[in-house]
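To whoever is on call:

I kicked off a structure prediction for a single chain this morning and the downstream step that reads the tokens threw a length-mismatch warning. I double-checked the sequence; it's 126 residues and nothing unusual in it as far as I can see. Pasting both halves so you can look.
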Amino acid sequence: QLQLVESGGGLVQPGGSLRLSCAASRVTLDYYDIGWFRQAPGKEREGVSCISGSDGSTKYADSVKGRFAVSRDSAQRAVYLRVNSLKPEDTAVYYCAARPGRLFRLCELSLDYDYWGQGTQVTVSS
């Protein structure tokens, strides 16, 4: 059973930045598809970014393109989501999720992942 732990959320002013972390103990995430999702109050959970286990390719939702960046750190067994130029509408609980990577399959922004973390709150407010 893969256990994921997110961290790095907090309260930030509009235009600010955060680095969210998704870590797993004793297991490398290099060969997993890792997705980042968020859920605002009263809204459905949505995918914002992912990184593929097969080739390291990345994908972003249109709403965050150019502002968010996903990356891996193999040594730390972690995947990061750098969130820049934050807006009040980015306020949400952010989750990471994982599924085993497969050859020739790219990550997706759908909810089709096997393992989920508990989430970290990001609040953008002045």
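Update from on-call: the warning came from a stale cache, not from the record. Cleared it. Sanity check on the structure: The radius of gyration is 14 Å.
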